[in-house]
């Protein structure tokens, strides 16, 4: 069985820098599934969705979060809501997604104008764009390259290649060259990628 997107994101968070996030299932009460939040152990369980969202908003450097959704077993994402700053708005969005039987990932909003690129890989093809989120691949004008050519290009430009949540040649994945927040950024010599959007694929 193919792992759900938030499960892949949780795995990636153990070895790469990703945007802070908390994920929820579509059941009653918005049951929490995974989390990666600064100052808390991996997978920390919050009291409820309201607490989780409140903590995430407080710790997000931008003061805002995104809500991305997906259906179990589907390689494509569902509705995406960007840049929410109020807890009640986030909770209302989560409730609406749950009402449509969708899983959801709430992640901190990151600066897309930091010199990095974000994109998606599917079936050996990589699409990406600068100054945008992985959703850029849904619009015309996004570069599309074979996996080996894309990795060679990104490696030449950034000095490292993205870390994938699973081998992109075998299916959908997302990645980004974005750096983590300054407080968590590795030294320049480490060349460590930030991972899916820091998946904003997800991970935005």
Give the distance, in angstroms, between the N- and C-terminal Cα atoms: 24 Å
Low-confidence stretches: 169-173, 178-204
Structure class: alpha+beta
Specify the overall morphology. Answer: globular
Whole-number average pLDDT?
79
Our Rg estimate from Cα atoms comes to 16 Å
Q: Report the order of strands and helices.
A: HEEHEEHEEEEHE
What profile does the largest beta sheet have?
A: 5 strands, antiparallel
Please estimate the helix content: 10-25%
Extended strand count? 9
In the sheet with the most strands, the strands line up as 2-1-5-3-4
Percent of residues in beta strands: 15-25%
Explain this structure.
The chain has 204 residues and is of the alpha+beta class. The chain folds into 2 domains: 20-108, no CATH class; 117-190, no CATH class. Helices cover 22% and strands 24% of the residues. The strands form 2 sheets. Strands 2-1-5-3-4 form a 5-stranded antiparallel β-sheet, with helices on both faces. A 4-stranded antiparallel β-sheet has the order 8-7-6-9. The longest helix is centred in the middle third of the chain and has 13 residues, at 87-99. It is globular. 45% of the residues are buried.
């Amino acid at each position: 069985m193919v792992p759900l997107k938030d499960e892949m994101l949780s795995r990636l968070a153990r070895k790469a820098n990703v945007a802070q996030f908390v994920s929820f299932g579509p059941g009653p009460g918005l049951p929490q599934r995974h989390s990666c939040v600064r100052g808390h152990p991996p997978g920390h369980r919050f009291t409820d969705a309201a607490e989780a969202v409140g903590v995430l908003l407080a710790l997000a450097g931008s003061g805002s979060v995104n809500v991305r959704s997906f259906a179990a077993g589907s390689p494509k994402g569902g509705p995406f809501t960007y840049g929410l700053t109020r807890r009640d708005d986030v909770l209302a969005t989560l409730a609406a997604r749950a009402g449509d039987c969708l899983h959801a990932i709430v992640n901190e909003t990151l600066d897309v104008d930091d010199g990095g690129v974000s994109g998606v890989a599917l079936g050996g093809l990589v699409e990406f764009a600068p100054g945008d989120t992985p959703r850029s691949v849904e619009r015309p004008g996004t570069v599309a390259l074979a996996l080996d050519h894309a990795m060679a290009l990104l490696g030449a430009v950034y000095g490292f290649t993205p870390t994938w949540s699973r081998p992109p040649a075998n299916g959908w994945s997302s990645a980004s060259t974005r750096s983590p927040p300054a407080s968590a950024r590795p030294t320049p010599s480490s060349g460590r990628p930030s991972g899916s959007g820091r998946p904003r694929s997800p991970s935005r």
